[in-house]
Amino acid sequence: MSIFLWILCILAALAALYLFLIAPSRDRPDASMLSGWLYAHRGLHDGNQSVPENSLAAFALAAEAGYGMELDVQLTRDGQLVVHHDGSLKRVCGVDRNIRDLTYRELCAIPLPDGSRVPLFSEVLTLVNGRAPLIVEVKHYGGAAKNAAAALEQLKTYSGPYCVESFDPTAMRYFKKHAPQVIRGQLATGGKWARSELNLASYVALRSLLVNCVSRPHFVAYSVPTDHTASMWLMKHVFKPLLAGWTIRSQAVLDHSRAEGYDYPIFELFTPER
Predict the structure, then answer these.
(1) Cβ-based neighbour number of residue 97 at 10 Å
(2) Is pLDDT of 68 > 80?
Protein backbone atom coordinates (compact mmCIF):
# COMPACT_ATOMS: atom_id res chain seq x y z
CA MET A 1 0.00 0.00 0.00
CA SER A 2 1.31 3.44 -0.92
CA ILE A 3 2.08 6.12 1.65
CA PHE A 4 -0.83 8.17 0.27
CA LEU A 5 -3.30 5.37 0.99
CA TRP A 6 -1.83 4.84 4.45
CA ILE A 7 -2.38 8.54 5.17
CA LEU A 8 -5.95 8.34 3.91
CA CYS A 9 -6.62 5.30 6.10
CA ILE A 10 -5.19 7.03 9.16
CA LEU A 11 -7.23 10.18 8.50
CA ALA A 12 -10.39 8.13 7.99
CA ALA A 13 -9.77 6.25 11.25
CA LEU A 14 -9.21 9.52 13.13
CA ALA A 15 -12.38 11.01 11.66
CA ALA A 16 -14.37 7.93 12.67
CA LEU A 17 -12.93 8.10 16.19
CA TYR A 18 -13.79 11.80 16.44
CA LEU A 19 -17.40 11.17 15.37
CA PHE A 20 -17.68 8.30 17.83
CA LEU A 21 -16.45 10.50 20.69
CA ILE A 22 -18.79 13.43 20.04
CA ALA A 23 -21.91 11.48 19.05
CA PRO A 24 -24.98 12.03 21.25
CA SER A 25 -27.27 9.24 22.34
CA ARG A 26 -29.05 7.32 19.58
CA ASP A 27 -32.13 7.16 21.82
CA ARG A 28 -34.57 9.99 21.23
CA PRO A 29 -36.98 10.11 24.17
CA ASP A 30 -40.13 12.21 24.02
CA ALA A 31 -39.13 15.68 25.20
CA SER A 32 -42.20 17.56 24.00
CA MET A 33 -43.04 18.66 27.54
CA LEU A 34 -39.80 20.67 27.62
CA SER A 35 -40.19 22.41 24.26
CA GLY A 36 -41.80 25.78 23.60
CA TRP A 37 -40.56 27.33 26.85
CA LEU A 38 -38.11 30.08 27.68
CA TYR A 39 -35.95 29.13 30.68
CA ALA A 40 -35.00 31.65 33.36
CA HIS A 41 -31.35 31.11 34.30
CA ARG A 42 -31.19 30.37 38.05
CA GLY A 43 -34.76 31.65 38.29
CA LEU A 44 -36.08 35.10 37.45
CA HIS A 45 -33.48 37.01 39.48
CA ASP A 46 -32.21 40.57 39.19
CA GLY A 47 -28.46 40.04 39.53
CA ASN A 48 -28.55 39.36 43.28
CA GLN A 49 -29.88 42.76 44.33
CA SER A 50 -33.38 42.26 45.73
CA VAL A 51 -34.07 38.86 44.11
CA PRO A 52 -30.97 36.62 44.34
CA GLU A 53 -30.20 33.91 41.82
CA ASN A 54 -31.26 30.37 42.77
CA SER A 55 -33.55 31.69 45.50
CA LEU A 56 -37.11 30.64 46.24
CA ALA A 57 -38.21 34.16 45.30
CA ALA A 58 -36.53 33.89 41.89
CA PHE A 59 -38.19 30.54 41.18
CA ALA A 60 -41.60 31.79 42.34
CA LEU A 61 -41.34 34.79 40.00
CA ALA A 62 -40.31 32.57 37.07
CA ALA A 63 -43.25 30.22 37.61
CA GLU A 64 -45.70 33.11 37.96
CA ALA A 65 -44.38 34.70 34.75
CA GLY A 66 -44.79 31.47 32.81
CA TYR A 67 -41.12 30.62 32.35
CA GLY A 68 -39.32 27.35 32.76
CA MET A 69 -36.24 27.59 34.91
CA GLU A 70 -32.67 26.35 35.17
CA LEU A 71 -31.09 25.66 38.56
CA ASP A 72 -27.99 24.12 40.13
CA VAL A 73 -27.73 21.39 42.77
CA GLN A 74 -24.94 20.23 45.08
CA LEU A 75 -24.59 18.55 48.48
CA THR A 76 -23.73 20.00 51.86
CA ARG A 77 -21.32 18.19 54.18
CA ASP A 78 -24.19 16.40 55.89
CA GLY A 79 -25.79 15.24 52.64
CA GLN A 80 -28.50 17.85 52.10
CA LEU A 81 -29.10 18.66 48.42
CA VAL A 82 -29.24 22.43 48.01
CA VAL A 83 -29.70 24.83 45.10
CA HIS A 84 -26.66 27.04 44.49
CA HIS A 85 -24.34 27.58 41.54
CA ASP A 86 -20.88 28.28 42.93
CA GLY A 87 -18.93 25.93 45.14
CA SER A 88 -18.20 28.92 47.36
CA LEU A 89 -20.62 31.40 48.94
CA LYS A 90 -18.27 34.33 48.38
CA ARG A 91 -19.71 35.82 45.17
CA VAL A 92 -23.37 35.70 46.17
CA CYS A 93 -23.27 35.85 49.99
CA GLY A 94 -19.93 37.55 50.64
CA VAL A 95 -18.65 34.70 52.82
CA ASP A 96 -15.68 32.66 51.59
CA ARG A 97 -16.89 29.21 52.63
CA ASN A 98 -17.50 26.15 50.47
CA ILE A 99 -20.93 24.55 50.62
CA ARG A 100 -19.46 21.05 50.66
CA ASP A 101 -17.62 21.95 53.90
CA LEU A 102 -20.76 23.17 55.71
CA THR A 103 -23.65 21.35 57.31
CA TYR A 104 -27.05 22.58 56.20
CA ARG A 105 -27.58 24.19 59.60
CA GLU A 106 -24.33 26.11 59.19
CA LEU A 107 -25.33 27.07 55.65
CA CYS A 108 -28.65 28.48 56.86
CA ALA A 109 -26.74 30.90 59.10
CA ILE A 110 -25.25 32.56 55.98
CA PRO A 111 -28.08 34.49 54.29
CA LEU A 112 -28.56 35.34 50.64
CA PRO A 113 -28.60 39.08 49.81
CA ASP A 114 -32.37 39.33 50.41
CA GLY A 115 -32.08 37.74 53.85
CA SER A 116 -33.43 34.36 52.78
CA ARG A 117 -31.38 31.16 52.89
CA VAL A 118 -29.99 28.84 50.25
CA PRO A 119 -32.98 26.59 49.46
CA LEU A 120 -33.16 22.85 49.57
CA PHE A 121 -33.83 21.20 46.21
CA SER A 122 -36.92 19.59 47.73
CA GLU A 123 -38.28 23.05 48.59
CA VAL A 124 -37.89 24.20 44.98
CA LEU A 125 -39.66 21.08 43.71
CA THR A 126 -42.52 21.72 46.12
CA LEU A 127 -42.71 25.38 45.09
CA VAL A 128 -42.74 24.76 41.34
CA ASN A 129 -44.96 21.68 41.63
CA GLY A 130 -45.03 20.95 37.90
CA ARG A 131 -46.14 24.44 36.84
CA ALA A 132 -43.12 24.81 34.55
CA PRO A 133 -40.31 22.55 33.32
CA LEU A 134 -36.96 22.45 35.11
CA ILE A 135 -33.43 22.13 33.77
CA VAL A 136 -31.44 20.72 36.68
CA GLU A 137 -27.69 21.24 36.46
CA VAL A 138 -25.73 18.78 38.60
CA LYS A 139 -22.56 20.40 39.93
CA HIS A 140 -19.29 18.55 40.45
CA TYR A 141 -18.37 20.00 43.86
CA GLY A 142 -17.87 17.18 46.33
CA GLY A 143 -18.34 14.53 43.63
CA ALA A 144 -20.44 14.69 40.47
CA ALA A 145 -21.80 11.14 40.71
CA LYS A 146 -22.66 11.65 44.39
CA ASN A 147 -24.61 14.82 43.55
CA ALA A 148 -26.31 13.03 40.65
CA ALA A 149 -27.41 10.19 42.90
CA ALA A 150 -28.93 12.61 45.39
CA ALA A 151 -30.72 14.52 42.64
CA LEU A 152 -32.12 11.37 41.10
CA GLU A 153 -33.42 10.15 44.46
CA GLN A 154 -35.51 13.31 44.86
CA LEU A 155 -36.61 13.49 41.23
CA LYS A 156 -38.01 9.94 41.38
CA THR A 157 -41.05 11.25 43.24
CA TYR A 158 -41.43 14.49 41.27
CA SER A 159 -44.21 14.40 38.69
CA GLY A 160 -43.45 17.67 36.89
CA PRO A 161 -41.44 17.95 33.64
CA TYR A 162 -37.67 18.17 33.97
CA CYS A 163 -34.34 17.26 32.43
CA VAL A 164 -30.81 17.11 33.85
CA GLU A 165 -27.46 18.39 32.62
CA SER A 166 -23.87 18.83 33.79
CA PHE A 167 -20.45 19.96 32.66
CA ASP A 168 -19.12 16.82 34.30
CA PRO A 169 -19.90 13.84 32.03
CA THR A 170 -19.70 11.39 34.95
CA ALA A 171 -22.85 12.97 36.42
CA MET A 172 -24.74 12.28 33.21
CA ARG A 173 -23.14 8.85 33.01
CA TYR A 174 -24.77 8.13 36.36
CA PHE A 175 -28.19 9.02 34.96
CA LYS A 176 -27.49 7.00 31.82
CA LYS A 177 -26.80 3.93 33.93
CA HIS A 178 -29.42 4.31 36.66
CA ALA A 179 -32.21 6.29 34.96
CA PRO A 180 -31.80 6.08 31.17
CA GLN A 181 -35.35 7.36 30.67
CA VAL A 182 -34.47 10.75 32.20
CA ILE A 183 -33.58 13.29 29.52
CA ARG A 184 -29.94 14.25 30.05
CA GLY A 185 -27.69 16.89 28.53
CA GLN A 186 -23.99 17.61 28.22
CA LEU A 187 -22.99 21.18 29.06
CA ALA A 188 -20.11 22.73 27.15
CA THR A 189 -18.73 26.04 25.94
CA GLY A 190 -16.61 27.38 23.13
CA GLY A 191 -15.39 30.39 25.11
CA LYS A 192 -11.84 31.21 26.10
CA TRP A 193 -9.94 28.89 28.39
CA ALA A 194 -10.23 29.92 32.04
CA ARG A 195 -7.16 28.39 33.66
CA SER A 196 -8.63 28.79 37.14
CA GLU A 197 -11.69 26.66 36.29
CA LEU A 198 -10.41 23.84 34.04
CA ASN A 199 -7.11 22.34 33.02
CA LEU A 200 -6.34 22.61 29.31
CA ALA A 201 -7.17 18.98 28.50
CA SER A 202 -10.60 19.24 30.15
CA TYR A 203 -11.28 22.52 28.38
CA VAL A 204 -10.45 21.05 24.96
CA ALA A 205 -12.55 17.95 25.66
CA LEU A 206 -15.56 20.06 26.65
CA ARG A 207 -15.18 22.63 23.87
CA SER A 208 -15.00 19.86 21.27
CA LEU A 209 -17.68 17.70 22.96
CA LEU A 210 -15.29 14.76 23.18
CA VAL A 211 -16.81 13.96 26.59
CA ASN A 212 -20.04 12.92 24.88
CA CYS A 213 -18.64 9.40 24.69
CA VAL A 214 -18.98 9.27 28.49
CA SER A 215 -22.37 10.95 28.93
CA ARG A 216 -24.02 10.06 25.58
CA PRO A 217 -26.46 12.94 26.05
CA HIS A 218 -29.93 13.37 24.61
CA PHE A 219 -29.24 17.09 24.22
CA VAL A 220 -26.22 19.36 24.08
CA ALA A 221 -26.23 22.57 26.15
CA TYR A 222 -23.79 25.05 24.65
CA SER A 223 -22.89 28.70 25.14
CA VAL A 224 -24.79 30.40 22.32
CA PRO A 225 -22.37 33.32 21.75
CA THR A 226 -19.43 30.90 21.35
CA ASP A 227 -20.98 28.02 19.43
CA HIS A 228 -18.90 28.50 16.26
CA THR A 229 -16.96 25.27 16.60
CA ALA A 230 -16.63 22.26 14.31
CA SER A 231 -18.27 20.00 16.87
CA MET A 232 -21.30 22.24 17.20
CA TRP A 233 -21.61 22.52 13.43
CA LEU A 234 -21.71 18.73 13.27
CA MET A 235 -24.23 18.62 16.10
CA LYS A 236 -26.58 20.98 14.30
CA HIS A 237 -26.23 19.62 10.79
CA VAL A 238 -25.31 15.93 11.13
CA PHE A 239 -26.41 14.54 14.48
CA LYS A 240 -29.27 17.03 15.03
CA PRO A 241 -29.88 16.39 18.76
CA LEU A 242 -31.93 18.63 20.99
CA LEU A 243 -30.05 21.83 21.90
CA ALA A 244 -30.11 24.04 24.98
CA GLY A 245 -28.57 27.50 24.64
CA TRP A 246 -27.01 29.41 27.54
CA THR A 247 -26.73 32.09 28.82
CA ILE A 248 -28.73 34.50 26.65
CA ARG A 249 -28.61 38.11 27.82
CA SER A 250 -30.22 40.03 24.96
CA GLN A 251 -33.09 39.75 22.51
CA ALA A 252 -30.63 39.67 19.61
CA VAL A 253 -28.87 36.60 20.99
CA LEU A 254 -32.23 34.97 21.74
CA ASP A 255 -33.33 35.53 18.15
CA HIS A 256 -30.01 34.05 16.95
CA SER A 257 -30.49 30.99 19.15
CA ARG A 258 -33.93 30.40 17.68
CA ALA A 259 -32.57 30.75 14.14
CA GLU A 260 -29.84 28.23 14.99
CA GLY A 261 -32.39 25.68 16.17
CA TYR A 262 -31.91 25.83 19.94
CA ASP A 263 -34.82 24.07 21.60
CA TYR A 264 -34.29 25.29 25.16
CA PRO A 265 -33.16 28.96 25.32
CA ILE A 266 -31.87 29.89 28.79
CA PHE A 267 -32.03 33.66 29.41
CA GLU A 268 -30.99 36.06 32.13
CA LEU A 269 -31.28 39.74 33.15
CA PHE A 270 -33.65 40.94 30.40
CA THR A 271 -37.29 40.49 29.51
CA PRO A 272 -37.54 38.41 26.35
CA GLU A 273 -40.19 38.91 23.70
CA ARG A 274 -42.66 36.04 23.74
Answers:
(1) 15
(2) yes
